[in-house]
Structures are given as C-alpha cells and as structure tokens.
Amino acid sequence: MGSEPGDAAGLSPRQRLRRRLLAEREAFAASAEGPAAQAALATQLSAVLAQLEPQCLGLYSAVRSEFNAMVALTIDATTAGLPLALPFSRRVPREMHYRTWDGGALRAVDECGIPASDGAEVVPDVVLAPCVGFTRAGYRLGYGGGYFDRWLAAHPHVTAIGVAWARAEVDVAEFAVQPHDRPLMLVVTERGVVG
User: I want to staple 110 with a disulfide (CB 3.0 to 4.6 A). Which of 10, 48, 66, 116 is the partner?
Assistant: First the structure.
C-alpha cells in the first residue's frame, strides 16, 4: 500500500472507499439476494475457467463476506482433478507465495491469520484475486496490505482474475490508480465478466 494523505478523521480517500465497500458487501452477503448471487458467480467463474484451462489454479481462503471460490469450485466438474494452490502471507518481510492444496482440510494459518495450506510452494498459472472494489479497467481494491499487487508484479506472466460482487465496481474518479496497483486480466461478478 502506498502512502495516502489522510483527511481530518485520519483516513485517506482509499481507506474511506474500502470501509464503505466492505460495509456494503457485508449487508449484501447477508441479504436475501446473497445465496442467488453466490450461485450465479460460481456459474460465471466456472465458465471463465473452462475457457482458460489453467494448469494450476490459485484460489484464496474467503474471509468476511467474500465469494467462497474454494467451496464453489471444488465441487465443480470444471476444476475436478485440477491442481490447486492457496496463498500464504508473511508479515516480515511482507510477501506472499502460493502453496499446493489437495482440496482437503486446511492445516496451516498464515501470518495474517488466514487459513492456508501446508503444501509445497508453487506458482499457479491462473490466480483468483478477491476484490473489495474494482474498476472497469481491471484495477482492484483489496484490504490494503499490497500482498496480491506485489505477487503479481513479481509474476507478470500469471493470468490474474478478480472475483467480486457486481456492486463493488467503482468509478475511476473514486479510485485513483497508484503506481503499485496491478491490473487484472478481467473481473468476474455474478452478473458476468468485466474487462
């Protein structure tokens, strides 16, 4: 995360945007629309992955009200037998790598407190990146740690797919792209593909 000037409350515009989007996402996921959106997003994502035919798919452990791709895709015929991997983040130095995952119970927790795999380190050719927010141009707003952006910068050959609820799309006027931001190839929502 780059340095962002704060306002009177001490929050930068990006931090305020993140806070607002997270509150909206929590409310949406808990609403009556949530289950149908989960199913629709799983269908959309499966169709994209069928076209991409990854050799190794980097998933993520869903937190808060994120779309749970691990559950949706591990029961899908599109990904049956596909090698999977999960991110593992370290706080010092601040970095992330992927570890192979057999689809079973997670036996590790990374340094950010997120469930992870204890498998061997690997570089997937396609990764799913959860988005707190995103722009039509494929820039993603995450939680502010910069883990995915640093990993993507170090692995420019990897196909990065954003995963988000459609309501998380923000206008470029709300989300000023910074030098460390890395664009995704596309973003998949419950309403279709953006990008």
Answer: 116
